[in-house]
Write a structure and sequence with these properties.
This protein is α+β, with helices and mostly antiparallel strands and 124 residues long. Helix content is 21%, strand content 31%.
Length: 124
């Protein structure tokens, strides 16, 4: 497995079969884990196709496994980035960390996708 992120808040690894393994750590890890699981399930129920699918959630290990949404994006103008995050609103979610580091590009269908929902909000 390749480690693609190792910070105070999380370690993210990608396996050779393309699955993404994220382990939460640091401040409020349980809260952030619970929120990301809740938001990903919400988006899947609403058939949002440009976010990862949750494959496994292990609360004991504070770890999730998701599908892969492509490669990180290095360059994207501010207007396009804002538009991408606004696409979540009809699905009832506000990302709350709308930074380019949370945008990926899925080459299979030429689609920009969004990742990292630990701070997202499900809207009323």
């Amino acid at each position: 497995m390749e480690t693609v992120k190792d910070t105070l808040r999380a370690t993210v690894r990608i396996s050779y079969d393309g699955r993404v393994y994220k382990t939460f750590q640091g401040p409020k890890a349980e809260e952030r884990f619970d929120n990301e699981v809740r938001v990903l399930r919400h988006l899947e129920a609403r058939q949002c196709l440009f976010v990862p699918r949750l494959l496994l959630a292990d609360r004991e290990k504070l770890s999730i496994v998701t599908t892969n949404c492509g490669n990180r994006v290095d360059h994207l103008d501010a207007e396009r980035t804002r538009e991408l995050f606004e696409e979540l609103l009809p699905f009832g979610v506000r990302h709350d960390d709308p930074e380019m580091r949370n945008v990926t590009y899925r080459q299979q269908d030429g689609r920009f996708c969004l990742i990292d929902f630990e701070f997202a909000t499900i809207l009323p």
